[in-house]
Amino acid sequence: MHPKAILIAAVLLAAAPVAFAQTLAPRDVPARSLPVPTDVSPQLQQLIAAPLRTGWNTPPTTPEGWKQYAESIRAAAVPNVHAMQERLQVKVEPGVIDGVRIYTVTPKTIPAANRGRLLLQIHGGCYVLNPAEAALPEAMLIAAIGGFKVIAVDYRMPPEAYFPAALDDSMTVYKAALKKTEAKRIGFIGTSAGGALVLEMALKAKQDHLPMPGAIASGTPMSDATKTGDSFQTNAMVDNVLVSPDGFCDAAAAFYANGHDMHDPLISPVYGDMHGFPPTILTTGTRDLLLSNTVRVHRKLRNLGIDASLQVYEGQSHAYFGRDDRIPEVREAYTEIAGFLASHLKK
Amino acid sequence: MHPKAILIAAVLLAAAPVAFAQTLAPRDVPARSLPVPTDVSPQLQQLIAAPLRTGWNTPPTTPEGWKQYAESIRAAAVPNVHAMQERLQVKVEPGVIDGVRIYTVTPKTIPAANRGRLLLQIHGGCYVLNPAEAALPEAMLIAAIGGFKVIAVDYRMPPEAYFPAALDDSMTVYKAALKKTEAKRIGFIGTSAGGALVLEMALKAKQDHLPMPGAIASGTPMSDATKTGDSFQTNAMVDNVLVSPDGFCDAAAAFYANGHDMHDPLISPVYGDMHGFPPTILTTGTRDLLLSNTVRVHRKLRNLGIDASLQVYEGQSHAYFGRDDRIPEVREAYTEIAGFLASHLKK
């Protein structure tokens, strides 16, 4: 009936590992108009329907420009952060630990099982954005929904300091935490650049002969800063947050790297040796530009026999799941993450 | 610096649940050329580089046409199935259980822990394709890689019989198996239509007051036959196997449904009540047209507190992970599935 179809099917089925094609043809995909999916909440539909982030392909080009950009985003975020804090009823106290700026975020009540536990939250923002209060949404979400005490690390960023300053500051806070809290009672949580940093922290802890934390929650990690990963292509112009591997976020990561090799596992942790990692939960969305960056870390951990859990949310672009506590899927995601941490951290 | 960007960011962050847009704009994505990803095995790269399935949008239109199509695909598959059987060294014995055609697939050795266990494998093929030996690759893979005894169900298909014949035949074999083997020692495994059927079987078992199996492995399930699910759009023309929600597979499912309501959970199991489901592992790929169908089932199970594990493979279109035992990622996927079944089925 369809002899050509049968031939292709047979080739796909059997011959692939034997008769290698000489050239690997790309997939040419025509222009398309993707409707907003109907199988997510109305709140999430609003995010999906938003246009591509304005200015995604015109990032700042000078240190001063980046500083102003970060500051303007911070200033715009502050009222929302305060409103979220109000809704979630968490206490936020700024502080300094061994020279590193932090916030201690505490929920109204901490369940008995969590009283000896501590989370370190490492914020996202392409290693350049979300200083100060802008760092707090994830810390507040996991504190309120999970009932955890959280230390949010407001690490130094360019142009104040370059690679590996973000990692160094996060490790300083971890080392300080270890003096008071057993490693197995400490969890790392972060999203995007923060999702990469929590993996980098575990790699660095191994290098420095520090104990592993009890669990890690890595949200859509920038695990590969070399632009490798299929969803950089398949979800380009589909993800309305990061938009493209040639957008503002990669420009920001390059600004942070400051000439450092992007293949270094301390900036592209997917290339690191993850033997001995603790239980890890990874979160992403089907429209996420970093879908591949996330699933590759998950498979790497699973192939090492590590208890790694992958959660993929329908229709979500990069890091939607941490956006706003009034979105049902955001509460769902942090309930899932909180449950994972609660079941793996030592009491 | 980027006042419009800041405005959009602020709107995305805070206003979504408050100020609802009146119309939900689709995302217009330009034509693109997606290179073959470099972070998968050379064998998998060959599959990814293959063109769209020929004839994907010209399915048969008559019962006789479908019969011929299914037969031609079966005939083309047989030599590959035999070669795979040879490589995997599994024994394949045809038989009949209470009137239903089956194959018993046995590995060379069965580990002691698996001797009291049994898997029922329900093949894929859009409810119309892959009769007889064409049904066997998944059964052989899990038998050989997992060390399980497997009964592969060669259920009736249209035009021989229509909905719910596939489900009825699968349930007949399950009921027969229950006479000899405790439910908690039985696992269900299936991919695509088979991935849906194993979920439908669990729903039907509840309806019929039969015990739940001990575990389920559902590969990229056709869990929603109503064409709902974001990846039907985002991965259209990207997935080179199913290609489009308006392709041969949906035509085949409609042929099977024979006018039955596609929202019935026994043909679109994502709409079913999954309370009480056993531990379930779900498998898909980042380019899979059914990525959303898979993650939606996963989230549904997780929100019910069920031990559900999601595995998403880089760059894979629909059901690549069951394609050929010589592809490293195929062995990886069945090793993962086998480990899940081994850790959840009662010994």
Task: Write a brief structural summary.
The structure is a homodimer of 347-residue chains. Chain A has 347 residues and is an alpha/beta fold.
Structural features:
alpha/beta; 10 helices; eight-stranded mixed sheet; Rossmann fold; homodimer; disordered N terminus; 38% helix
Topology:
2 copies of one chain form a homodimer.
Chain A: H1 3-15, E1 27-29, E2 32-34, H2 42-49, H3 63-88, E3 91-97, E4 100-106, E5 118-122, H4 137-146, E6 150-153, H5 165-180, E7 186-191, H6 193-207, E8 215-219, H7 231-234, H8 248-257, E9 280-285, H9 291-303, E10 308-313, H10 328-344
Describe what you observe in this structure.
The structure is a homodimer. Chain A has helices at about 5-15, 40-50, 65-90, 135-145, 165-180, 195-205, 230-235, 250-255, 290-305, 330-345; strands at about 25-30, 30-35, 90-95, 100-105, 120, 150-155, 185-190, 215-220, 280-285, 310-315. Chain A has about 350 residues and is of the alpha/beta class. Chain A has a single domain (about 50-345), classed as Alpha/Beta hydrolase fold, catalytic domain (Rossmann fold). In chain A, helix 6 (about 195-205) links the parallel strand 7 and strand 8 (about 215-220). Chains A and B meet through helix 1, strand 1, strand 2, helix 2 and helix 3 of A and helix 1, strand 1, strand 2, helix 2 and helix 3 of B.
